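Check my protein:
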Amino acid sequence: MPNRAYLAICAHDVSGDFPSQSEVKLLGLPPTQISWITTPHIHAGQCVLVVLSESEPTKAKALYIFDHNNRPFQVGGIRDLLLDGVRLIDLTKTHLPTLRYAKVIQEAVFASLSLGEMCAYQQPLRLWQAKCIEEMLSEKPTFKSCQDICLKHWNQDVFAEDVTQRATEAVMNVKQPKKSERNAALPINLNGYRFMFQIGQPEPH
């Protein structure tokens, strides 16, 4: 039987501050133990591919992120288990609308800022992104609720008044994405790998 792998959304930021062995929360799966083979930089809301142990389903045998060509890039585990073939289960579908909402709202905010402002506020903006997406993914909110969450986490003590004004206007004026856009599957490229694909929830172990 091929290894069981899951496409899943990371529920929180994972950075190089994580120890070599640590726990990652992937939506739709129990907290997952992973041994890193490279410094991880995974953002809240990012899609990953994880191969779980059949005997210990809370331990990952391999974990992959996707590069700029949407190809899997291994960041955790001992060896590339995709080469053995996998049964791939997609757990991302129910979270796609929330991710699209976050994307269009936050891109509207970034478009309202100058390049200099983006550089000056790089760290506060990254923190704002992470907090917004983490809360959105925990609640599966409406588009209006996503707008409210983005405004709630905007730290007015950090950003200049005119920056806050433009960001607020951007959040309030952005248009909700169409149904076809918010339900579009995440682009992944598994050419060269053998896999069986299904959409659904993880099977009981």
Observations:
- The chain has a mean pLDDT of 86.
